[in-house]
Design a protein that fits this description.
Helix content is about 40%, strand content about 10%. With about 450 residues, it is of the alpha+beta class. The longest helix has 26 residues.
Length: about 450
């Protein structure tokens, strides 16, 4: 028999479409699905064999997670949990773990924490095969909290297993096929047929893609950075060791946002997705750079915008950020080699808070990108490694170390409004931040690639 979860998944996808025809015809599908569920309940039969039938739907959820269909994964797994009993504790733990990861990807942090706690109670080794969860801040924190003291030796040890519920022993009884079960099977096949008909109908009437959505709806302006080579690193020998050695990096063409992402832009994302609204610390929002968010929050914004525009939009890589900030003439700061002051950048506590983006036109980079020094430090896509420059690729460098690293930090660039040292505003200066940290001094900028 076809998997019940796959049918529900098709129905959910149809419900999310905006076609008028699809919405009208969907009521027929909903009635069939409702009849199916009632039929299964009356029949007293599970569509999943208790011994092996739950693993298949779980593998389907793993595939959907890898395809970044987090909303579908969360709904499928919540349904799958209702079919688990005390004999499925190992699988149940993995379901909770994957559900927590999906919730975290969707920004539902409290729900993610709850599911992680349940998973960690049931699993000796809190992993789901084929999926790397180490980029998720809350998952990392759970791993760390479970290990004391804070050492790699401790983290590599298995977590103590504690079962939160006793297995339920049930007397075996002979299974009989109820007539209602056959009716339910027929309803299932009918629901599949209707769902595929609606799917084809909606695809024919799909809303036309608007290629300049980001420009019209969010007001994001893009600056083209031409392809070519620049010298990356501290050519003035005045920074830290992690800025050495200076090395040539060839960069393909890309487009960088003229300004840092603002509260106004991020609020539209929150309105559409229901994600948490960050705090403005009482300074005002609007066109000020968005703050009080994590690395994962910034990544989710990029994924949302990529889906809406069908463009490859992401955080800046460290190399993309530096080239856009200093150009190809090896300058110390975005505006040149003269030291920073309050006319060129929101730096050294000139204003003791963030300012609206673009408030310092005298400090633009050689390509015309604003606020590359000061205002807020900017989260980059790269994971931080202090020795990365020693073996950095010479073309489009980006650092992504092994997935088993429990101490991952991410690069930040540009310095912020609260700095007190001119060295921190140099275009070559490198900083780092924990992916779970939120700050009044950190925001982000976007890159779009063809």
């Amino acid at each position: 028999m076809l998997c019940f979860l796959e049918v529900l998944k098709l129905l959910i996808e149809e419900a999310r479409r905006n076609s008028v025809t699809g919405i009208k015809n969907l009521w027929t599908t909903k009635l069939i699905a409702l009849f199916l569920v009632l039929g299964l309940l009356l029949a007293g039969q599970s569509i999943f064999p208790r011994e092996t039938g739950l693993e298949g739907p779980f593998q389907w959820s793993i595939k959907n997670y890898l395809d970044e269909k987090y909303w579908e994964v969360s709904k499928d797994l919540e349904l799958l949990l209702s079919f688990c009993d005390g004999n499925h504790n190992q699988l149940k733990g993995k379901i909770y773990l994957l559900l927590g990861a999906a919730c975290e990807q969707l920004g539902e942090i409290e729900k993610a924490k709850k599911n992680y706690h349940l998973a960690f109670e049931l699993l000796e080794k809190p992993i789901v095969e084929e999926i790397d969860l180490t980029s998720l801040p809350e998952y990392q924190l759970m791993i760390i909290k479970k290990q004391k003291p804070f050492t790699r030796e401790k983290i590599d040890r298995p977590i103590t297993r504690r079962i939160i519920e006793k297995p339920i022993s049930r007397p075996k009884r002979k299974k009989r096929i109820s007539p209602l079960y056959l009716i339910a099977g027929g309803a299932l096949l009918a629901a599949v047929a209707v769902a595929f008909v609606l799917k084809k109908k909606v695809q024919e009437e799909e809303i036309e893609f608007v290629p300049d959505y980001d420009t019209r709806e969010l007001g994001i302006e893009w600056i083209r950075i031409p392809p070519g080579t620049f010298d990356m690193g501290d050519n003035f020998n005045e920074g830290e060791e992690d800025e050495q050695p200076v090395h040539a990096a060839y960069m393909d063409e890309y487009f960088i946002s003229k300004y840092e992402v603002t509260f106004r832009q991020y609020d539209k994302y929150c309105d559409e997705t229901g994600f948490r609204r960050p705090s403005d610390y009482g300074w005002g929002s609007g066109d000020r750079p968005v703050i009080d968010l994590t690395w994962a929050d910034a990544v989710q914004f990029c994924r949302w915008l990529s889906r809406k525009t069908r463009k490859n939009i992401h955080l800046t890589t460290e190399a993309q950020w530096e080239k856009a900030a200093r150009g190809i003439d090896r300058r110390r700061y975005p505006w040149g080699n003269s030291p920073p002051d309050c006319s060129k950048a929101n730096c050294n506590n000139c204003y003791n808070q963030t300012r609206p983006v673009g408030s310092h036109p005298d400090g633009v980079s050689p390509y015309g990108v604003h606020d590359m020094a000061g205002n807020v430090a900017e989260i980059c896509l790269d994971q931080y490694n202090e020795t990365f420059y020693s073996n950095s690729p010479n073309q489009n460098p980006q650092n992504n170390p092994g997935a088993d690293n429990q101490y991952t930090l991410y690069v930040i660039r540009g310095g912020s409004w609260s700095g007190d040292d001119d060295v921190g505003y140099r275009a070559a200066d490198r900083g780092s931040i924990s992916p779970a940290n939120r700050s009044s001094t950190v925001g982000f900028r976007l890159v779009m690639e063809r």
